[in-house]
Design brief:
With about 130 residues, the chain is mostly helical. It has one domain. The protein contains six helices and no strands. The longest helix is centred in the first third of the chain and has 24 residues.
């Protein structure tokens, strides 16, 4: 199971770093916007500056996924973004849904459920 988590983390982390860094260095062209509502939303995110923060967080989380001590935290931080990306592609831009689903599955496999259980078991209990 550890090899599955490690492989999933690498398969998720490397593209996050590459595509997140591409936003800043422009190694290859960003897709042109079209007429669908999803493409207009992406275009407004780029124009409004939100995409820079998203790209920076993708690079940071991608690096966290590659470092074994930070892997769980990186996968945990990436999970809401993976769910949001999947929901976006399911509702607004269906062309990328398959890639988004693969990304979500890799994210779930990268999480160490045993570590999460241990963290919750060691959490202090409230009085009551």
């Amino acid at each position: 199971m550890n090899k599955i988590r490690m492989t999933s983390a690498w398969l998720l982390g490397i593209p996050l770093i590459i595509f997140g860094a591409n936003y800043f260095v422009h190694a290859f062209d960003l897709p042109a916007g079209g007429g669908s509502s999803g493409e207009r939303l992406l275009e407004s995110m780029r124009d409004g500056g939100l995409m820079a923060a998203i790209a920076a967080s993708h690079v940071l989380i991608g690096v966290m996924l590659l470092v074994p001590r930070m892997r769980f935290m990186g996968a945990l931080l990436q999970l809401p973004m993976s769910i949001g990306i999947t929901a976006f592609h399911a509702t607004m831009l269906p062309e990328g849904l398959v890639v988004a689903l693969v990304m979500l599955v890799l994210n779930v496999f990268a999480l160490d459920i045993t570590r999460a259980r241990l963290m919750l078991a060691d959490a202090p209990r409230g009085r009551g």
